[in-house]
Specification:
By secondary structure, this protein is α+β, with helices and mostly antiparallel strands. It has 15 helices and twelve strands. It folds into two domains: 194 residues, no CATH class; 180 residues, no CATH class.
């Protein structure tokens, strides 16, 4: 208890130095919490951009279909697969689809693109096509309605209600098939590649156009818990995988994004390491200055029988109090900043990463471990940084310390 009292009093013998060192330590903790919150927010933004836009959190498809989106790679009998999906409690929604490349033509121009045939109602639980509509309305189920992107509408010089002709090759016969549609809505996801090359029609008319009655190319899945899709050993995936079909989570569907996210997870560790190194230098400097100011006192303490361990203990207690005081301020400020940016967002401009649009504000994310683990790390770092000054103080020779003080 005597060491604790002395350590607390010694901490405020030079209040200015103590406050400055505390600001350094607490600032490191604030930056660490904020950077980790930004990293979590960025990961959520990128994952949401993939899974919520169009891909879904998982997909069931014919093996080989994703290589070149060949129309011949379709699910011949999707009903048993759909029954398995419906029976799984972890699934919140699914969307059957057909996907084919074709020509989209208006009276003024022609372009190529991917034609998605979707079930209008079920697609609402999988993707955000409806949210991307900027003009007109979402699919209602009528046979000849079509949704196109804003860049494609500008290229084809069409508006709501105008006619569009889709030309594609039938799956079985490879004969050219054409169908007339009217623009029901214009969407804007963000990535130009999507807005310029995708159109959406109702599933039934798409199956008729391609001669695919009862067949599908893809079944997109959404889970109640997004983390479920990361489990490669998920029983649902095993049940849906056969010699001809495969079920893949978004990490397998988008390995490039998975790699980017894995790299971002190291950002907090890298930033933390740099901050800890800088902070440790500040702590060591502060502790040595405190020791040199009291070198006479340490010499007297050694002369009257104070053991080296007691001196080490005293210096470490000072470092502990300094760390605890800094963590209190750091936690309060870190929480306030992270919570503010979690609602107001950080202006991030517009960027596209591997087809994922990052537009406007990026919102930080609070997590319990940020306020438990990080303060512990900072406290341990401060104690580790104080070990060398403490050992130095314990080795002071009384006769030399008294001569220096003179």
């Amino acid at each position: 208890m005597l060491s604790l009292k002395l350590a607390w009093r010694n901490l405020f013998r030079n209040t200015r130095r103590t406050i400055l060192t505390s600001i350094l330590i607490s600032s490191s903790l604030v930056v660490l919490i904020l950077v980790d919150g930004m990293t979590l927010g960025m990961v959520d933004l990128m994952v949401g951009g993939i899974t919520h836009t169009l891909e879904g959190e998982a997909q069931v498809l014919r093996k080989g279909f994703r290589n070149n989106f060949g129309v011949e790679y379709y699910l011949e009998d999707p009903e048993p697969l759909i029954d398995i999906i419906k029976a799984d409690d972890s699934v919140s929604g699914f969307g059957p689809r057909i996907i084919v490349g074709g020509m989209i033509a208006s009276s003024y121009n022609t372009t190529g693109g991917l034609i998605y045939g979707v079930d209008a109602e079920q697609e609402l639980g999988v993707s955000r096509i409806q949210e991307a509509i900027i003009e007109g309305h979402y699919l209602s189920g009528e046979s000849r309605e079509i949704l196109i992107g804003k860049p494609m509408a500008d290229l084809l010089e069409v508006e709501l209600g105008d006619r569009i002709i889709i030309t594609a090759a039938a799956v079985d016969s490879n004969e050219i098939a054409q169908e007339l549609f009217r623009v029901k809505g214009i969407f804007e996801f963000g990535p130009e590649e999507m807005d310029k090359n995708l159109v959406f029609i109702n599933l039934e008319i798409g199956q008729q156009l391609l001669g695919m009655q009862g067949h599908l190319h893809q079944i997109a899945i959404r889970f109640h818990d997004p983390e479920t899709s990361k489990d490669t050993d998920l029983p649902l995936f095993a049940a849906l995988t056969t010699n001809e079909t495969e079920a893949l989570g978004w990490l397998d569907l988008q390995p490039a994004i998975g790699g980017i996210i894995e790299m971002t997870n190291y950002s907090t560790a890298i930033v933390g390491t740099v901050l800890f190194m800088l902070t440790s230098l500040g702590v060591i400097n502060s502790m040595f200055m405190s020791i040199y100011e009291r070198i006479y006192e340490f010499g007297v303490a050694k002369a009257i029988g104070t053991t080296p361990w007691q001196i080490i203990q005293l210096v470490l207690f000072e470092a502990l109090f300094l760390a605890l005081m800094s963590c209190v301020f750091g936690l309060v400020i870190g929480y306030m900043l992270t919570n503010y940016f979690s609602t107001s967002g950080i202006p991030f401009g517009t960027a596209e990463v591997a087809g994922v649009l990052i537009d406007g504000n990026m919102y930080t994310k609070l997590a319990a471990y940020q306020f438990i683990n990080f303060p512990v790390y900072v406290t341990l770092l401060t104690l580790v940084a104080a070990i060398y000054p403490a050992i130095f103080a314990s080795r002071i020779v009384p006769s030399q310390a008294l001569q220096r003080s003179l």
